[in-house]
Specification:
By secondary structure, the protein is α+β, with helices and mostly antiparallel strands. The protein has a single domain, classed as paralog of FGE (formylglycine-generating enzyme) (Alpha-Beta Complex), CATH 3.90.1580. Helix content is 13%, strand content 19%. A five-stranded mixed sheet has the order 1-11-10-9-12. It has a five-stranded antiparallel sheet with strand order 3-4-7-13-8. The longest helix is centred in the middle third of the chain and has 12 residues.
Length: 268
């Protein structure tokens, strides 16, 4: 899969968004876990998911705009999982971009790549089993696609929140990446303090792929969001949970309630 994963996928706008409804009683806005991973509080709220039918390249698969409510706060990694963090938890580093393939040969702060959905799920399970994490009551998981979308928009009303592929202020894309990943956090964060939500590596989501608005809770394919170093950012892709590629990575989510399920639901 070392050819660009952008080929043959469906281009789609991210979303129209509305501001989040932030509750008056909040847990800490940021936490740092036992392996130095920083997580940012994402407030619950509502937004419009998917793209209008009139936009170019949009298909029936994902053109049905619908209001989604994120009914619970969650924590989301401020950065994509790094190679050093993945190595610490899993005992191996599967990344393509390491050693002689990166500048200076130190890839510890680069996002882990070449990981499948199943690898990402196993990482979450193993991290949750760390003694310090169990004592803190933290259960890690992947964000749902709706949670990812809500966090990416960061309460913005703009369809293309923080999208500037031409200027490259917020992400690494095909035009500025020199055909490789880059260390986390070198670009500007969005309004909620999340880095690299666009570009660098695709990010696995926890739920299954399906046509909007309900998705397919029983299907085989999973969703990755955010595009990567070899793409533009107007893309949502679906892949097998066993697929690996040098443009695939992830970031973790954490529910304050320690529930393994996300808090997103359609509003009727």
């Amino acid at each position: 899969m070392f050819q660009s994963i952008c080929k043959g996928v469906i281009a789609v706008s991210l979303w129209l968004g509305v501001g989040a409804n932030i509750s008056s009683s909040q847990p800490p806005k940021e936490i740092t876990n036992s392996i130095g991973m920083k997580l940012v509080l994402i407030p619950k709220g509502t937004f419009m998911m998917s793209s209008p039918e009139y936009e170019e390249g949009v298909t029936d698969y994902e053109s049905q705009q619908h209001e989604v409510e994120i009914s619970k706060d969650l924590y989301l990694g401020a950065f994509e999982v790094t190679q050093a963090q993945y190595l610490k938890v899993m005992g191996t580093n599967p990344s393509w971009f390491q050693k002689s393939r990166v500048l200076g040969s130190d890839s510890s702060r680069y996002p882990v790549d070449n990981v499948s959905w199943e690898d990402a799920i196993e990482f979450c399970k193993k991290l949750s089993d760390f003694e310090e994490e169990k004592k803190a009551g933290r259960v890690y998981r992947l964000p749902t696609e709706a949670e990812w979308a809500h966090a990416c928009l960061a309460g913005s009303n703009e369809r293309w929140s923080n999208f500037d592929e031409g200027n490259g202020n917020y992400g690494w894309f095909g035009g500025n990446s020199n055909r490789q990943t880059h260390p986390i956090g070198e670009k500007k964060p969005n309004a909620w303090g999340l880095y690299d939500m666009y570009g660098n590596v695709w990010e696995w989501c926890g739920d299954r792929s399906g046509a909007y608005p309900k998705g397919d809770r029983s299907g085989w394919f999973r969703v990755a969001r955010g595009a990567a170093w070899d793409c533009g950012n107007r893309i949502r892709i679906r892949l097998s949970p066993t697929d690996r590629d040098r443009s695939l990575g992830f970031r973790v989510a954490l529910s304050p309630s320690t529930s393994p399920q996300g808090g997103d639901e359609l509003k009727r």
